[in-house]
Amino acid sequence: xxxxxxxxxxxxxxxxxxxxxLKSFATGLDKTLRHLxxxxxxxxxxxxxxxSSARLVNYKGTxxxxxxxxxxxxxxxxxxNKKDIPYDFSLAGCEQxxxxxxxxxxxxxxxxxxxxxxxDENKPPRLEIPHPKKKNERIRWKYHxxxxxxxxxxxxxxxxxxxxxxxxxxxxxxxxxxxxxxxNKAMKVKLQFTPANQYDVDGRLRVDPRxxxxxxxxxxxxxxxxxxxxxxxxxxxxxxxxxxxxxxLNSMPGY
Length: 255
Known about the structure:
Blueprint: H1 2-15, H2 19-36, E1 55-59, E2 62-67, H3 69-80, H4 94-107, E3 113-118, E4 127-130, E5 138-141, E6 143-153, E7 156-161, E8 171-172, H5 173-181, E9 190-195, H6 212-230, H7 234-250
Parallel strand pairs: 2-6
Antiparallel strand pairs: 1-2, 3-6, 3-9, 4-5, 6-7, 7-8
């Protein structure tokens, strides 16, 4: 009823306009509508919508999105260009990067998995990749995580990992694992696929990537990592802070 009342008042008001005033009003309204309909002023850009090839399937008991390899590569490029995610600080922060990428994918209607690769933390060797900035240096991890989507080839669903911190494009997850273990082909790497809400390798923390409060905390961590990545001595400072934290924990009674 309120809508009809507003329209009635508007019609009565319009009737009292002079002919020129009414023409001016109509012209202004037309310009406004044209502006709102322009592609650069729409609230949703077509490039941010769910890929046309995407569909939801059940993969080993977990819902996940299948898409074309072309769309997966486009998704990789889109995520790689997110300047707020410090992919070049690969010394740490894979959980934060994977969670933020998963959040962005869910906003696009894509349901990712997370792929966790891990080795025995009590003994070498470690997962290993070339340092993204320092020639002849290596980054070593006990475990690493990144989002995963599925590609269908010849009727088979193949996991593809989205990980700009170490790859130049979306790659089969088997290749992703291989790139971290090529220095020791005999090493045993545990690979597990989990829902996007699993945050850590042990599954102790599970939280929806769309949780606003947790997102703010996660993004704050990413901003800290970005500061470290932009500082020539950032890695050394981060390791120093980690050592201070570990020493503090070790000094606590009963720890």
